[in-house]
Amino acid sequence: MMSNSLHLPILSLHPKTAFHRSQTLGYKNGFSYARLPTTGIGREQLHVNQLSQAELDELSNKRPTLTYGQPKQAPPSDFIPAHVAFDKKVLKFDAYFQEDVPVSTEEHFRIRQVGIYYYLEDDSMSVMEPIVENSGIPQGKFIKRQRFPKNDRGDHYHWKDLNRGINITIYGRTFRIVDCDPFTQTFLESQGIELNPPERMIFDPYMELRKMPLRMYITPSNFDQLKQFLAFDKKVLRFYATWDDTVNLFGENRRFIIHYYLADDTVEVREIHERNDGRDPFPILIRQQRLPKKFVEKKKTFPSSVLEISDQEVLEWFTAKDFAVGKSTTLLGRSFFIYDCDEFTQQYYRDKFGIADFHPVNVKPPPQEEVKQVIPPYNGYGFLEDSLQNCFSLIPQPPRRNFIKMLENAHKVLRYKVKLESPNPDDRKRHFILSYFLSTDMISIYEPPIRNSGIIGGKYLGKTKVPKPGSTTENPMYYEPADLTIGAMVEVFGHRFIITDADEYVLNYLESNAESFPAPTLQSLQNHFAPHRAARQEAHKIVVSELDKPELEVVTEKVREHLRRHNYSPDGSMHEAFFQCDKDGLGVVGKAEFGALCDRFHVPAEDPLFHKVWRQAVFLPFAFFQKDKSREFYYVDKTCHYLI
Which residues form a coiled coil (predicted)? Predict the structure, then answer.
């Protein structure tokens, strides 16, 4: 008995090892083109549409068979690459995206409009954001040109995926496409894509609030600003004004220049800088601008501090009629008093407003009362000129000297013999030598020492200027050679001296400069020396008759040479000593007195040459000293001299 059984075929399972997709991109003549795949996953042969490219080309060129022979085959069309066919062909879509603003209290989100560009030549895309003025956001190229990924599988956006009224996500940002340009619409419709209706572009609400209102055009007035500019260009009114701020602490009265520009009715205030005024060199106080004169009444809630003044807040502006000479004008809170103007301004006001009164106002402050400088009384220290310099400057300067006078009268000294006027009999016997220095107009007094007198001689008064009685600090008067006459009284700091005698050099000096001295002074000295000159001439005749003059001159010259060889320097007081020995003023002394004087001054009188001179006469003149032929007298040195 046979049993019915189901026989199933045994299926052999062959595992697949290749899962890659076959290549669909080929190259021909150096250009890439797409082709159909020939194998599937696992290297299985695909039997659908497995015609070769040559067979497809043959079928496309196949023509129906004609009765009278085969038709001619059409030549194949030329291959055009994509970058040539779609060069400079770009699809443009208008889109926007929404961006959150978490840090602002005025806006919670922001709408940003962009343009999406699709380049057909290589299927790349870019996103551009138009630049909005004063947006504060970096704008321009939002996403650079590239192929945008479509999903996680590696697909990219194609132009078939783009349409109006859809959302696309690019790098995590969602863009809403609302419209496209006409070229994009025509291209998509030609490819069989049905476009959605366009949508309205959404604008940012915050940017709409920031937009200024549209300009409202009003009917222009009859006043032509261009005509005003052309007529009054470079024509400026100039006023001179002052700003008195002395009521405030550290305030002062300052001068300014107010310029009014007729071309645009603007005002400028410039500061006048004075020398050493201590201010920075900034000339502009108020820059050129229109200045408000009256404001609109503000509400109580209106802030008191604003940045700028608009035309809606001003009722009236300053014009040329608001400025006048002699009146005050308040400009931005400062009160300026106009005291003068220039010639052009005066002529403009005459022609425009008929004003002819332009009297400038004197704004100069009254001169301060001069404080007379009170010179304090002289304290007796130093010279009056030196002490007076302490009253003129903090650092006293030495008084100026007459150097020409000092050079011309160097070593010129006038000597007088004086005695002290005193109720004390002992002081009346004292004799002094008063020396007047012509180079500095100073006086010194020397008292010759007398042995066993009980009075120490020497310098009684150093070189100084001696004021005359009645001299004041404002009008100082000092003793001059014209005041020193025989018998005159000289008051020296409370002590009175009477001039009894003088050196004959004084008479010779006054006679040689007679035009510089009064006649009574010269006559006084001439009367005093008249008998002395007559006696001296007689003594000279006697001495000369008793001397062998040629031999005396030879010996005298030898004596001079001998003194120079031994470097002898005569003492400064030698003249006074010889002056005392010659009581008669004849210019000669005896041998005994001459020898005593030589011992006193250490003159080498033991030399045989001196003995030879002594044997010449009983009375010896001072002939062995140097002789000044211009003045015809012999002298000991340049300062001490004696006549013969």
Answer: none
* Rg of the chain taking only CA atoms, in angstroms: 65
The pLDDT of residue 114 is above 70: yes
State residue 63 phi and psi, 5-degree precision. -115, 155
- Given a contact cutoff of 8 angstroms between Cβ atoms, the answer to whether 305 and 265 are in contact is no
Q: Are 582 and 535 in contact (CB under 8 A)?
A: no
Which amino acid, one-letter code, is at 290? Answer: R
Strand bridging mode 458-464 / 25-28? unpaired
- Put the strands of the sheet holding 627-628 in their side by side order: 627-628, 633-635, 641-642
Q: Which residues are 268's β-sheet partners? A: 259
Residue that wins the pLDDT comparison between 535 and 518: 518
Sorted by where each starts, the structural domains of the chain and their CATH numbers stand as 18-79 (no CATH), 83-210 (2.30.29.170), 225-300+311-352 (2.30.29.170), 400-502 (2.30.29.170), 529-642 (no CATH)
**More confidently predicted of 342 and 38:** 342
DSSP string, 280-291: -S--EEEEEE--
**In 3-state terms, the chain is what percent helix, strand and coil (to 5)?**
25, 25, 50
DSSP state of 408: H
Q: Pick the residue with more confidence: 67 or 640? A: 67
Find tokens 């044997």 and name the residue. 615
532-560 burial code (b ≥16 CB/10 A, e <16): beeebeebbeebeeebeeeebeebbeebe
What are phi and psi for residue 443, nearest 5 degrees?
Answer: -125, 135
CB 495 within 8 A of CB 488: no
CB-based contacts of 296: which residues, under 8 Å, 6+ apart?
Answer: 312, 313, 314, 315
d(C-alpha 541, C-alpha 549), whole Å = 12
Look at the alpha carbons of 152, 153, 156, 160 in this order and tell me if their dihedral is positive or negative: negative
Question: In which residue are the tokens 């300026």 written?
Answer: 336
Instruction: Please count the other Cβ atoms lying within 10 Å of the Cβ belonging to residue 490.
Output: 21
Residue 73 dihedral angles phi and psi, to the nearest 5° = -80, 130
What is the H or E stretch that residue 114 is in?
Answer: strand 109-119
Q: Is 527 left (phi over 0), alpha (psi -120 to 50) or beta?
A: alpha
Q: What are phi and psi of 554, to 5 degrees?
A: -65, -45
Of residues 624 and 302, more confidently modeled: 302
CA dist., res. 410 & res. 314, Å (int): 87
By CB atoms closer than 10 A (0-12, 13-18, 19+), residue 17 is: exposed
pLDDT, tens only, 160-202 = 999 999 999 999 999 999 999 999 999 999 998 999 999 999 9
Contacts of 271 (CB under 8 A, 6+ apart): 254, 255, 256, 257, 279, 282, 283, 284, 285
Burial 436-452 (b: 16+ CB within 10 A, else e): bbbbebbbbbbbbeeee
Q: 72 φ, ψ to 5°? A: -75, 140
Give the Cα separation of 416 and 486 in Å (integer): 9
For position 14, what pLDDT does the model report? 52
Element (H, E) at 544: helix 519-546
3-state secondary structure at position 531 = helix
Alpha-carbon gap, residue 348 to 354, rounded angstroms: 9
- Torsion-angle region of residue 206: left (phi > 0), alpha (psi -120 to 50) or beta? alpha
